[in-house]
Design goal:
Largest sheet: 5 strands, mixed
CATH superfamily: Uracil-DNA glycosylase-like domain
CATH topology: Uracil-DNA Glycosylase, subunit E
Structural class: alpha/beta
CATH architecture: 3-Layer(aba) Sandwich
Shape: globular
Helix content: 40-55%
Number of domains: 1
Distance between the termini: 25 Å
């Protein structure tokens, strides 16, 4: 992170709008950059924008975003105070008639976009980065990182920043069984409560 320049988020967003680091920009509507306060204490990282996000130009505004909003609220975290972004800033999809089917980014695409994550991190300097899903974890740690093995505990990054690994909210949406969905949603909220507790402790310490 130390090699990344500390530019204001507004500058990074303007630069990223013209990003051609990989081929995904060719089919996507636009770059979907992160959103949130410049000095957010929590940075949430997802996989990539989906169909709704690609059209709106904003992260987490579709069904997964609604799931995330509900979970953050139940964990006691105000979304307006966190910075929300994705490991990959362009929508990767396969066209199927009128629909665009989400495709998982590959390692080359994650690496091509990682400098943007690094610059967001350097700009914000949050206390905690929450990696939601395998793609986000790969971007945050710079290598393939199993979710279940690392989930639910604070992991040290550089410069005193901590990381927390959990699932992506879209995983919860894909679960076909209602009982499993309820159980996994509770686990997701519990993970976010670890983030809330960290913030509460640091607030009291200050």
């Amino acid at each position: 992170m130390t090699s990344a320049s500390r530019a204001p988020l507004k500058t990074l967003r303007e630069e990223a709008a013209g990003c051609r680091a990989c081929h995904l920009w060719k089919e996507a509507t636009q770059t979907v950059f992160g959103e949130g306060p410049q000095h957010a204490r929590i940075m949430l990282v997802g996989e990539q924008p989906g169909d709704k996000e690609d059209l709106a130009g904003q992260p987490f505004v579709g069904p997964a975003g609604q799931m995330l909003d509900r979970a953050l609220d139940q964990a006691g975290i105000d979304r307006e105070k966190v910075y929300v972004t994705n490991a990959v800033k362009h929508f990767k999809f396969l066209p199927r008639g009128k629909f665009r089917l989400h495709q998982k980014p590959n390692t080359a695409e994650i690496k091509a976009c990682r400098p943007w994550y690094e610059r967001e991190l350097a700009s914000i300097r949050p206390q905690l980065v929450v990696a939601m899903g395998a793609t986000a974890a790969q971007s945050v740690f710079g290598k393939i990182t199993p979710i279940n093995k690392n989930r639910g505990r604070l992991i040290d990054l550089e410069d005193g920043i901590k990381a927390l690994v959990t699932v992506h909210p879209s995983y919860l949406l894909r679960l076909p069984d209602a009982e499993a969905k309820a159980r996994e949603y509770k686990r997701f909220v519990d993970d976010l409560k670890i983030a809330a507790e960290l913030l509460n402790k640091s607030t009291h310490a200050a």
